[in-house]
Amino acid sequence: MYFMYVDESGDVGLGPGSSDYFILSGLVIHECYWHETLSSMASMRRDLFKKYGFSTDEELHAEHLIGRTNNGRSGMRRDAVLLMMRDVLKYEAGFKYARMINVVIDKRDKRKGYDVFLNAWDTILNRFENTIKYQNFPSPWETRPQNERGFVIVDETDEEKLRRLVRSMRVMNDIPSRLYPGTTVSNNLKAIVEDPMHKKSDLSLPIQLCDVNAYFLLQTIAPNSTVKRHKAKNYFYYLRPILCKQASSHDPDGIVHR
Prior knowledge:
This protein has 258 residues and is of the alpha/beta class. It is 36% helix and 17% strand. The chain is built from 7 helices and 8 strands; from the N terminus they run ββαααβαβαβββααβ. The protein has helices at 34-52, 62-66, 78-92, 116-133, 159-171, 205-221, 225-229, and strands at 2-9, 21-30, 99-106, 150-155, 174-176, 184-186, 197-199, 256-257. Helix 1 packs antiparallel against helix 3 and helix 4 crosses helix 5 (159-171).
């Protein structure tokens, strides 16, 4: 069983006042590596406390810690927070059995009626399904079983809308054919089991890491003034060792752009 933890950056609105981009970042861990990886995450949090004084009970929420909403909540200067986030990304890159799937929706060219939420989630779910099916995630088995499954754990979002999408994709999920452009093939979800489970991010270290990952992926495209000032625009690329390159043949880092 593969677990995919997911969090987002940006909003799903269109038009004035909305973000230009919406990003989903998924961290995938096989059940057999789950304890080992979670232990590494806990060790990372202890190291952050020793080095930066960042409490192991405080949530790693990039926007709140770096953005204007910080207001000294963490007791850390923003430059120290950015150095800490760099350490987080470097540490995460050492999770050799984890992989990341990333989806970027560029909303600037989307017309009224385009559903950002559904398109982003449709994309990441299809990538998760197909990467399991084509056996492109790290596996503990020498001879890989053909019936591996996946389960999605997500930060609190539109639960009903996501549940309806997953259930509909199990019975009708047509995707563009690579062999015959202009046509579609059926790709009904079979590897992904159950409805996605929603969990508060402050109770999940993997979801907190997805928050950091999505935030810094956004900064590679549209860096804010703080990130520019501290030359942190490319921090996301510390994660290259665990990016799922097979998720997209159109991007060298496997990032799916829509």
